[in-house]
Amino acid sequence: MCDLVYLQVTALCVYPELMKSPDFPEDTKEHARTILGGKCCGGGSLGAYSESVGVEVIRRHVAKYIEDRDGGIKCDYNNVILSGGASEAIKSVMELLNRPVDGKPVGVMVPIPQYPLYSATVAEFGMHQINYYLDEPRAWALDIPELARALEESRSTCIPRLLVVINPGNPTGSVLTRQNIEDIIKFAFENRLIIMADEVYQHNVYAADREFHSFKKVISEMGEPYNTMEMASFMSCSKGYMGECGLRGGYCELLNFDPKVKAMLFKMISAKLCSTVHGQAVMDCVVNPPKPGDPSYELYSQERDAVLSSLKERAALIAETFNSMEGFKCNQVQGAMYAFPQLELPEKAIEAAKAAGQAPDVFYAFQLLENTGICVVPGSGFGQRPGTYHFRTTILPQTPLLKEMLARMQEFHQTFIKKYQ
Ligand SMILES: Cc1ncc(COP(=O)(O)O)c(C=O)c1O
């Protein structure tokens, strides 16, 4: 992953003595000084607590990033909260909105397959998970009649309040079209649902016919009455070309939240003091990267472009390889970092799984691991239509390693099928 700039700037922030070193480009020093000098970065150190919602100058940079990304649509930094990874903000917003009514739990619409943070948080907070299935034959599109079905079926058991959309998708690798996003927004508006737009993979789009459209931009451009909807969107330094997942940086933008509700969220967050200030500094590097003409720009842009073009190559390679394997069907990896192929398992393999006390896809994943050392996550970890079997694998290994992994998988699969057919 591309990391030199992040490491240089954060190293300078952690140990400002390094400012004296000629090894650090001047713009990285300037950047570090901006962060450390930022209002709220107490005592010019990352080692001090920050304002609970995050260092003001970093929130301002996030707001500017959002405005530039969305073609100038206004973003008020007062609506931006910095967090220790997107996860922390996602959980805080879910906790905030978890207000059961007359003993009925709050319903959260979650895509299937989903990223397990959502099912885990729904369970932790005693909320109700409303599963809606993504449409695999249509490149994992989000189907509005399916949303309506799931919502109607849930009404007797919960108070539906949140609609989670992951775009680009984990584990599906899908990227929603603008039309699809507009339809989702209309659905949420008509059903008074708050959209939680998980957009942590916004830099990871590979398909030539797809681009990333933020929910904020689409809501804003749809105008009245949609542009008054409440929405929360989430971003992270863990993905993209950065991959700084251990440093725990993220942010959330709140749109149209009632000031009293927002105040309640800020109060909740303040009880946790603040998110890691180191992570906030990394987030600043993500939203405020070197500009053309800066000494670090060439290196930064080379690294960024190399990472993204390699991911794009690997995205194509993985889907092509799976589709060439008997019994596999894999949608194009349009974005994010994963492939989620469907595989047919012979009846005898399903029986062997039963005898081993495992779900068939879990059985397959264990066999793969034990025979090849390759670790994939069975589809049941994310949810899948009953009777279908998937696994998730990632495009993160470098191309030669990915090729080797796919070759080993192919060999394993042939042997597995022969054994159980
Ligand atoms: C869809 C999605 N949302 C959120 C996260 C969590 O991101 P973070 O590391 O910023 O907490 C992940 C991590 O894999 C993810 O895939």
Automatic annotation (TrEMBL):
Keywords linked to the UniProt accession: Aminotransferase, Pyridoxal phosphate, Transferase
EC number: 2.6.1.2
SUPFAM superfamilies attached to this UniProt entry: PLP-dependent transferases
Cofactor field: pyridoxal 5'-phosphate
CDD domains in the record: AAT_like
The reaction(s) this protein catalyses: L-alanine + 2-oxoglutarate = pyruvate + L-glutamate
Molecular function GO terms recorded: L-alanine:2-oxoglutarate aminotransferase activity; pyridoxal phosphate binding
Gene Ontology biological process terms in this record: L-alanine catabolic process
Domain Aminotransferase class I/classII large span(s) in chain numbering: 44-395
Annotated metabolic or biological route of this protein: Amino-acid degradation; L-alanine degradation via transaminase pathway; pyruvate from L-alanine: step 1/1
Classification via InterPro entries: ALAT1/2-like, Aminotransferase_I/II_large, PyrdxlP-dep_Trfase, PyrdxlP-dep_Trfase_major, PyrdxlP-dep_Trfase_small
Record note on quaternary structure: Homodimer.
Family (UniProt): Belongs to the class-I pyridoxal-phosphate-dependent aminotransferase family. Alanine aminotransferase subfamily.
Protein name: alanine transaminase
Organism: Amphibalanus amphitrite (Striped barnacle)
Record gene name: gpt2
